[in-house]
Structures are given as C-alpha cells and as structure tokens.
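HOLO CASE FILE
Compound: uridine-5'-diphosphate-xylopyranose
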Amino acid sequence: MGFEKRILCIGAGYVGGPTMAMIAHKCPQYRVTVVDIDHERIARWNSDDLPIFEPGLDEVVKAARGRNLFFSTEIEREIEASEIIFVSVNTPTKAFGAGAGMAADLQYWDRTARQIREHARSHKIIVEKSTLPVKTAQAMERILTAEDNGVGFDVLSNPEFLAEGTAIKDLEDPDRVLIGSRQTPEGLKARDTLVEIYANWVPRERIICSNIWSSELSKLVANAFLAQRISSINSISALCEKADADVQEVARAVGMDSRVGDRFLNASVGFGGSCFKKDILNLVYICRHYDLNEVADYWEGVIRINDFQKERFILNMLDVMFNTLAQKRICLLGFAFKADTGDTRESPAIFVAKRLVEERATVVITDPKALDNAREDLKELGGEISFVEDPYQACAGSCAIAVMTEWGIYRGLDFERIYRSMSKPAFVFDGRNILDHEGLFQIGFNVFPIGKPGRTHF
Ligand code: UDX
Ligand code: ADP
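Model generated. Tokens follow.
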C-alpha cells in the first residue's frame, strides 16, 4: 500500500512513543516510524512488554504496529526516507560546565540536528517535540543550514502537553495543539502540513498557531504555571498544619471560584516528573540571561517551595517519631512520581528515601509499576533498602507508612490487617492525602496528613 506521507520520530521515550502511536492509530494513510539509539528500548517497543507503562497505550500500539507504525534503530535510512521528522530526544538539565544545574543539556539534540543534515537528500519539515529552551529552533535552523547540502529545511515548534498516566486520553482529546512556525511563505506552508496531520482527529479550533518563539515559550510557561499552583497550595499546607485549618477545605473553597478553577490544587509531598523542575530551571536561566533577575527569582521560588515541602515531610517524621528514625522500618507506599506510571524521574520518593537512609532508617519500598526504576534510582545509595511487591508484606513490621504515590489500590488496602502487622506505636504519613484519616485514627494509627494537623494517641 502506498502511504500519503512518511513521518519519522527520533527518540522513542515517554513523549515520542505514545505521540507517534496516536498519529499512526488515527492516520492509517501515513507511514510512521519511531527510531532510537537505544536498541533495547526499540526491541521492547516491538514486543508485548512495552518500555513504558501508560494506560491504554498497549491497545493503540497493537492496533497500528506492523500496519503503519514501525519501531527501528535504522536512524540514517529513515531520515533519508521521511518527509516530516519529529525530534523527541531527551533534553535533561545540564550537569556540567556553564549553566550546570539550570540550563538544558542540548547535546543529544545537537547531535540529532547534525545527523539529519548529513542524511537528508530531500526537503524536510523538522518538528521540535521535546521541550527546549526558547530560540532552539533558530539554533536548529543554523545547524541544518550550516553546510549547503542542496536540500531545504523548515523547522516548526510543536510542544507536547500530554501528562504521564493520562497520555492516551490527552493525545486523543487534547485541550489544544500548538504549532509555531516562521511567518514566511515556506514556514506557513510547513505549518499547514502539520495542521493537516492533527486535523485528522483534533477539531480545528483547538489547533492554534503562533510564531516559533511564542510556541517554545508557551510550553515552559504552561508547566511553570501548573507547578506554581502546586507550590502555592503546598505553601499554604504548611500554614494549615500550624493554624488548625484543613488544606483540602481551603482548596475547595478557593477552587470553586471559576476564575481560579479547582484542578491542580492537591497539596502533596511535592511535585515530581521530568518536566516541571527542568522547565522552570530553563525559564529561570533564560531570565537571568536577559538580566531579568526579579522574574527569575519569582519562578525560582516555585522550586524552593517544592524543596521545602519535601524536607518538611522528613523533618515532621523525625519530630513526631521521637527524634530518631535509626533502625526503624519505614515503608514507602509508592515510588512513581504520580499514579498510573512507572516513571520515577524527580519523584519526591527518591528524596524521601535518601533522607531516610541518612537517618539510618530501614527503608522498604513498594509500588505496582515502578520497582525496577526505583532499584535503579537508589542503586548507589547503600543503606538498608528493600523492594517488595506485595504492599501487605512491605508494611509488615514497619513503624511507619509514608504514602508517596496516589495509586488507587492504596485506598482499598485493609488497614486493620496492616495495623496488626506493624510495630507500635504505628504511624501513617499521607503524602498525597488519599487515605481515610479519621478511619485510620480509629484503628489506632497516629495520622499525619499534608496540610491538616496530625493526630496521635499519646
Ligand atoms: C506535566 C504537565 O501536566 C504536562 O502538561 C506536560 O506536558 C509535562 O509535565 P506530568 O509531569 O506527566 O505532566 O504530570 P502532572 O500530572 O502534571 O504531575 C506532575 C507532578 O505534580 C506529579 O508529581 C503530581 O503528583 C504532582 N501534583 C499534581 C501535585 O502534587 N498536586 C496536584 O494537584 C497535581
Ligand atoms: P521524554 O520523556 O522527553 O520522551 P525520554 O528520556 O523518555 O524523554 O526519551 C528520549 C529518547 O531519546 C531516549 O529513548 C533516548 O535513547 C533517545 N535519544 C537520545 N539521543 C538520541 C539520538 N541522537 N538519536 C536517537 N534517539 C536518541
């Protein structure tokens, strides 16, 4: 069968994989290939054991794989063969040199731009999918055109707004699709090509267009605003614990104002994930670059509150557990940075586990999907850490349980049974406010939610 278009995505990660699977699923008339340098990852995309856990992803991949969706490591051949190339390689925070700990590390992305230039034999539309610092498209254009190989390139910015755990729903029914392009005739033509792809399933009024720099910046700002809401409610949670208020009641009252809205106001042990911190640091770095230090300080405050919230969680445990955690068995319920994913990048659980080990606690970790990543994250830590699949076994013999991830299954656990198996006095620290705090107190637990005064039996 002849395909209408050949689409390539470089980078088969949490963004590239699901996004391309959705395009292939919705558009059988296109041939969609996803490539990666990581051979093992590609092998898993071609197997029944996909490299990422995402509700609904298996079905979408199975429906299109082998028909018009392909996973491959033949990067050069696929660059040559495709008309549209999405770039979805990782852009972590730089760990070395100038801008370390702040700026984006663009080495993977730079390498990809050069590889495209080397192997392109015909005109290509390049689509930036990874979140990148503002003006990266310009740098991409410069690399692509630095050697005249006789082919033209149009670079578009098309940031992905999907959230992990709801990626398939977000891709299928996005609030908006944003496409940034140059305002030249060629730029607008490339933009229209991409609009046509999304218009196969996204209503046209939700596909919005802008210039490239606005598009790049919008992605950083969207994440900064979302993270800011969490830090705002988390800062208030600290006050609620002191002032006998209940942060959930406050959030409900505030969120019912339609100008504020009720989403993303769940106080927690802190936000995690690969995007929020990285994107805010990026924003801060750009602001400092332009000498906008007040603006940079303002956004940096969002991260400072998140760090404060994580540290506060540990200090509270230490305080109420009689100022020592040494040799105490503490069970972390959940390790993923949020429910419905196995991803642990920047998970607050990593911080909590490390601090508990520093306090010489015996740490037991359980999670339905993230134990492999948790083992990897903590492999160099030393200390007493174990990983247990069954939550009842994980809790048995513990002095305290700390909820790190809001997995639905934890709500339904038999806490009477867990209480009986624990060392007394038994504590619950609910870092996600998902449990029945009154019920737990009645069972006998000493209960410490986020943003509500704790209750003890002593
Ligand atoms: C985020 C953005 O939502 C998404 O649009 C962007 O494309 C990528 O970054 P993601 O990191 O996958 O998505 O998950 P998100 O649902 O935003 O949660 C981020 C973190 O905030 C998680 O640790 C979550 O538990 C925490 N969170 C979220 C809270 O602590 N409270 C809330 O009310 C909401
Ligand atoms: P994200 O969450 O943004 O999707 P991931 O780290 O999950 O980020 O995925 C990025 C993917 O990009 C990884 O699978 C990595 O192996 C891949 N990658 C990095 N550099 C290259 C490259 N030069 N060519 C192909 N793939 C690359």
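CASE NOTES: The mean pLDDT is 95. Residues 5-202 form a domain with the Rossmann fold fold (CATH 3.40.50.720).
CLOSED: yes
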